[in-house]
Specification:
424 residues, mainly beta, Maltoporin, Chain A, 18-stranded antiparallel β-barrel, two-stranded antiparallel ribbon
Length: 424
């Protein structure tokens, strides 16, 4: 926290430098109570890759503060140099002083990089450091499902490529296990072909990534030998622009180290533990405002995964469908409704009594009157009140209860609360 305050003061009090400073960020905060009168507890379908149907089901405070400096701000085709630092804060929202690890609060430096571009008349951009290196998200699920490779690295952007543009990046994810080769690390080579035009309304994005980890032997007893590992990702996203909105359809496949379709795989794995791991992902995201009074978000996802865990058949499937229609009463008043259903099935998954869990279902319904800065889908700030009710089947009782212990043994729960969201 002290580092953040020092940097904040430096950025905004240092008038002796001929530098143009920027400040922007994101905030999501609120307060809610459970159906039992205590602090709200959120309900999730364990094994889902996202916080499905998030409206009325976010129990923490999250914010980002971005400090940027245009050290050389070129006009038109002139060179530019820029630096950016981003702090992320998350906390449970229990008291006015949520700021220690024991309470679950955390402040992290999630971006610290420098970028430059348009050097010597070329359109290319360059960056080095730690950054959010990601593409689109599915808003209703708060999920960056496509090309999320946040971390440390370097890259080149704005590469002319047909009627689109390319981007290349080298990324490194370092773990905490030390081997005879050093701290275990995964190296990733990432290629993106973006905004390839198919006409006035349609465009394609292609994403390819390859990863490798060297293996090695742990230096602490018991001595474990880790095999060299590789992995890959292939993804395609098709966007169709609609009236005041869009529809994104994506198909992705991850293998080996990258079977999670992100950079967070474990670089130290024993022989055969993930060599043939696979994951298929299908996502559709619709955001549209077909009339002045009606808006609509729709999210659908399907995943089939086989992590190839040693000695265990841990194949899994996840299906999720959610919809959020909005009615606009006026420029600043709206009513949002959200409904969704999720199914998770993990082969041979057992509860604490040893019984097979089977297919686990979860359904949520939420209604939220809200005040918004404007009459579009994306105008923020938004201030809302909400009532949310979640249902789940008997097979899911224990798994839901692990994250919402006050509802262990139940098959339904509700929450009432208030929330605000803003990006600026």
């Amino acid at each position: 926290m002290k580092i953040f305050l020092l940097l904040f003061a430096f950025f905004f009090s240092c008038n002796s430098f001929a530098v143009e400073f920027e400040y922007h960020g994101y905030l999501r905060a609120g307060v809610g109570t459970s159906g039992k009168g205590a602090k709200q507890e959120c309900f999730s379908n364990s094994g889902a890759s996202a916080n499905e149907f998030r409206l009325g089901n976010e129990c923490s405070i999250y914010s980002e503060s971005v400090l940027g400096a245009n050290i050389l701000k070129g006009k038109d085709n002139e060179p530019f140099f820029r630096t950016q630092v981003r702090f992320a804060y998350s906390g449970p929202g229990r008291t006015a002083w949520d700021e220690n690890d024991s309470d679950g609060s955390d402040i992290s430096v999630v971006e610290a990089f420098v970028e430059a571009g348009r050097i010597d008349g070329l359109p290319l951009g360059y960056w080095v450091g730690k950054r959010f290196y990601r593409d689109v998200d599915l808003y209703m699920f708060d999920w960056y499902y496509y090309a999320e490779m946040n971390g440390n690295g370097a890259g080149v952007t704005n590469i002319p490529l047909g009627n689109g543009e390319g981007a290349l990046a080298y990324l490194v994810q370092t773990g905490t296990t030390r081997t005879n080769l050093g701290e275990n690390a995964m190296q990733v080579f990432d290629f993106r072909w973006q905004n390839f035009s198919l006409g006035s309304k349609d465009s394609l994005n292609l994403w390819l990534a390859y990863a490798e980890a060297p293996g090695g032997t742990s230096i602490a007893s018991p001595f474990t030998r880790f095999q060299p590992q590789t992995g890959s990702i292939a993804g395609l996203r098709w966007r169709r622009n609609l009236r005041d909105g869009f529809n994104d359809f994506s198909l992705l496949h991850g293998r080996g180290l990258l079977q999670g379709i992100n950079i967070w795989g474990d670089a130290t794995q024993e022989a055969g533990s993930a060599k043939n791991a696979r994951r298929w992902r299908l996502v559709n995201h619709l955001a549209v405002k077909p009339s002045a009074k009606i808006g609509l978000f729709l999210g659908a996802a399907a995943e089939h995964a086989n992590p190839k865990t040693l000695g265990v058949d841990a194949r899994s499937t996840w299906y999720s469908l959610g919809v959020r229609p909005l009615y606009f009463f006026s420029q600043h008043t709206q009513l949002a409704f959200e409904a969704g259903h999720s199914i998770v099935h993990v082969m041979n998954e057992r509860d604490s009594s040893g019984r097979l869990a089977g297919r686990r279902h979860l359904t949520r319904l939420t209604i939220a009157p809200q005040l918004s800065m404007g009459p579009t889908l994306w105008d923020r700030p938004v201030l809302r009140a909400y009532y949310s009710r979640t249902f789940w089947n008997k097979a899911n009782k224990e798994f839901v209860g692990r994250n919402a212990p006050s509802f262990a043994g139940a098959t339904a729960g509700h929450a009432i609360g208030f929330q605000t969201e803003v990006w600026f």
